[in-house]
Every structure is written in structure tokens, then in C-alpha cells.
Automatic annotation (TrEMBL):
It is a multi-pass membrane protein. The complex is composed of two ATP-binding proteins (CysA), two transmembrane proteins (CysT and CysW) and a solute-binding protein (CysP). It is found in: Membrane. Its main location: membrane. This is Sulfate transport system permease protein CysT. The keyword Transmembrane applies.
Length: 268
């Protein structure tokens, strides 16, 4: 009897948590966005600046996610399969973007790549500008999403028996073929899951991007910055409308990738 009461209590607490911290806030966004009806909502979403900010956000999020998937997989493989001096420090530094406020990350890039910094002056000598453009946005997104792919791929690599790779080497297969045929299928669900998280996180990033992108309307202004601008212009309905687009897109991507990942797991 006591065990049933405990389970019911825990279940009630979890349901209450989901309702209070997830369903109610999300529902309020949808209610606010559609409070004036469908036509005003559609007008807000399809406005020139709003639509460009959405498209730019999606495009740069996809680019940063692809970069993150490649770099994250390589780093995870190195951390699991190789032993070298400073490995523990590098492994602990992977989680730095999680603990570092994104506004601090943006200031860090401003200090590092600014026109008055040594690196900024050196890059400017070659005509390379990494601030106040779309490249800056991608750099910021890659930094804030850096841990996701690494931390989802690492456990899968640790579970993979190195003897399988050694057997492939013994049979004459090269490193690339071994990785492609033995390692990659095992870690593919982790790459997809990590990329999914990175993409969703990129859609919502504000702190670092607002400092290093320049926030040029139609050129470097991402959706999160546009939403902030709408709130400052006393247009909460417009801010909620763009938020609904990002929220819906994020939920659909999460659901789709989750289905694909489960399917991959069953096939494996």
C-alpha cells in the first residue's frame, strides 16, 4: 500500500512539474501569438524582416549543426580511443559552454576577434572579418552547442568493443574503412541525437549572437534577436508569433529525429 502511494505521489509531482514548467508556458505562447486571430499572426510571421530572420536562423543553425556533427564526432573518438597528455583537461573543457553564460561567450569573441585585438588586426590584414557577419553567427552557434554531439557520442564509443576495430585492422582494412563500417553505424544514433539537440539549441540562441552578429536587419539579425526587438517595441503578439514558428519547428525536429533514432536502434 505504501509503495503504491509513493509511486502515485512521484507520478503526481512529475506531472505537476511538466504542467507548471512546460505545458503552461508553451500554451501561453500559442495563446498570445493567436490572440488577435490567424490573419494578424500570418502577417507578423510573413513580414519581410521577420521572415528573413526565420530563414537566416534556420540556415545558419543547419550549417553550425553540420560543423558540430563532424567536429564533435572526431573529438569524441579521440577522447575515447586515444591516450595523451592533457586528455582529462580537454575532456573537462568540453562542458565549458554549458557553464559559461552565453553573453560572456559573446564578449569573449568580441575581445578575441575585435578590430583592436592582435588576432583581429592580423586577420584584417588578410581581409578576413569574423565579426558582425553571418560567419560570426556560425562561430557563436558552434561554440554554444559544442558539447552536445561529443557527450552523446562518447558513451556509445565506450560501449563499442575495441576488439572489433582490431579485428578489422587484422583483416587488412584501413582506419577509414574500419570507422565507416564498424564505428560509424554504432555511433550514428548518438550523432543524430546530439545534432538534434544542437540544432534546437541554435534556434533559440540569443546572448552570444546579439553581441557578435551586428544585428543587421535582413542580413545578420536572427529570430531570437528579432523577438527581443519586438518586445522592446511593445509588440508582444509579434514576438509570440515568431516564437511559435521556432517552437513548432523545434518540436517537429525533435519528434522526427527521435522517430528516426528509434528506428535505427531497432534495425541495429
Amino acid at each position: 500500500m505504501g509503495n503504491k502511494v509513493f509511486k502515485a505521489t512521484v507520478r503526481s509531482v512529475l506531472i505537476g512539474y511538466l504542467i507548471a514548467l512546460l505545458l503552461i508556458p508553451i500554451g501561453s505562447i500559442y495563446m498570445k501569438g493567436f490572440s488577435l486571430g490567424w490573419d494578424p499572426f500570418w502577417k507578423e510571421v510573413t513580414g519581410p524582416l521577420a521572415w528573413k530572420s526565420i530563414l537566416l536562423t534556420v540556415k545558419l543553425s543547419i550549417i553550425s549543426t553540420i560543423i558540430e556533427a563532424i567536429i564533435g564526432t572526431i573529438i569524441a573518438y579521440v577522447l575515447v580511443r586515444y591516450t595523451f597528455r592533457g586528455k582529462s583537461i580537454l575532456n573537462s573543457m568540453v562542458d565549458l559552454p554549458f557553464s559559461l553564460p552565453t553573453s560572456v561567450a559573446g564578449l569573449m569573441f568580441l575581445t578575441l576577434l575585435g578590430p583592436s585585438s592582435p588576432l583581429g588586426v592580423w586577420l584584417d590584414h588578410f581581409g578576413i572579418k569574423l565579426l558582425y557577419n553571418q560567419t560570426a553567427v556560425v562561430i557563436g552557434l558552434v561554440f554554444v552547442t559544442f558539447p552536445f554531439v561529443i557527450r552523446t557520442v562518447q558513451p556509445l564509443l565506450e560501449q563499442l568493443d575495441p576488439a572489433e576495430e582490431q579485428a578489422s585492422f587484422t583483416l587488412g582494412a584501413g582506419k577509414f574503412y574500419t570507422f565507416l563500417r564498424i564505428v560509424f553505424p554504432a555511433i550514428f544514433p548518438g550523432i543524430i541525437a546530439g545534432s538534434m539537440l544542437a540544432f534546437s539549441r541554435s534556434l533559440a540562441e540569443f546572448g552570444a549572437i546579439s553581441l557578435i552578429s551586428g544585428n543587421l536587419p535582413g542580413k545578420t539579425m536572427v529570430a531570437s534577436v528579432y523577438i527581443y526587438g519586438e518586445t522592446q517595441n511593445f509588440n508582444p503578439e509579434g514576438a509570440a508569433a515568431i516564437s511559435i514558428v521556432l517552437l513548432t519547428l523545434s518540436v517537429l525536429i525533435l519528434w522526427l529525429i527521435n522517430v528516426l533514432t528509434r528506428g535505427k536502434g531497432r534495425l541495429a
